[in-house]
């Protein structure tokens, strides 16, 4: 099939030219448009891309991995296929798709007008008609993280009533975790967030919301609900919530964290010593903790198509979007500054 449109020789992109602050690192540039060269290549005209904390942490130079510059961050995306290789048979030119690259801090990501994907890397799914490109771009890292914490690591009872507590329920992972948990039969879901976001968290399915800024509410949770929950999904990290809440889990309950034992890990530079200390803490909790302790370190991308997309298509899981968290590509610096504030509600999206 012929290309759906004339593909320009150059495109605009949000390119990281050095490690550092958003203003120092990110530049709105015009560069060569990628081309299909391999039989499994899929060229996508990006309509929207999601921003995840890992991208901001990598851009800042806080992760202990080499990142040659320049590069284009962005792993989650939604757009339209405009060209493809000869071995791509599951998709046609003109298909609206959404998905995620297997490496969200790849060198040639989705913060650009065009992006090369592959049917063998990450996940690419035909976009249901009931969601916008902006909504589609929100799924990916955050949604599959919630899935991994709940279904793969959660060790939930196979039958009967279940109870899940979500810490950080109004954030990107948290809003998906609340909704996904409510699709599990006989499951009660309680969210922890600030009082100003309580109504939002209720509106996406939480049976109850606890305001973490209320000492009285948190103390009541700890005192009255000992050995009540089957699973805690932690989207914040750190020692405080773990130490405070681990005993509200049942004896065979699981504390599954999307972050780890350091709050907002990567917000500051992760050095050799701090990395060693985090690893030691995780190992200690796994071996000697009073409850099961799990850290999300693997994302089962194939489950997006089989287990998540049907829920998206049926409207059971939606991306929480706010107008003040949708930015144009040329304003990507502001998107990165927003995600570094740790005060986001739902997803941050860059519209391309």
Automatic annotation (TrEMBL):
Chain segments annotated as transmembrane: none
Segments forming domain Enoyl reductase (ER): 21-350
GO MF terms, alphabetically ordered: oxidoreductase activity
Gene3D superfamilies, alphabetized: Medium-chain alcohol dehydrogenases, catalytic domain, NAD(P)-binding Rossmann-like Domain
Pfam family, one: ADH_zinc_N_2
PANTHER family membership: ALCOHOL DEHYDROGENASE RELATED (PTHR11695), ZINC-BINDING OXIDOREDUCTASE (PTHR11695:SF648)
Protein name according to UniProt: Chaperonin 10-like protein
Provenance organism: Phascolomyces articulosus
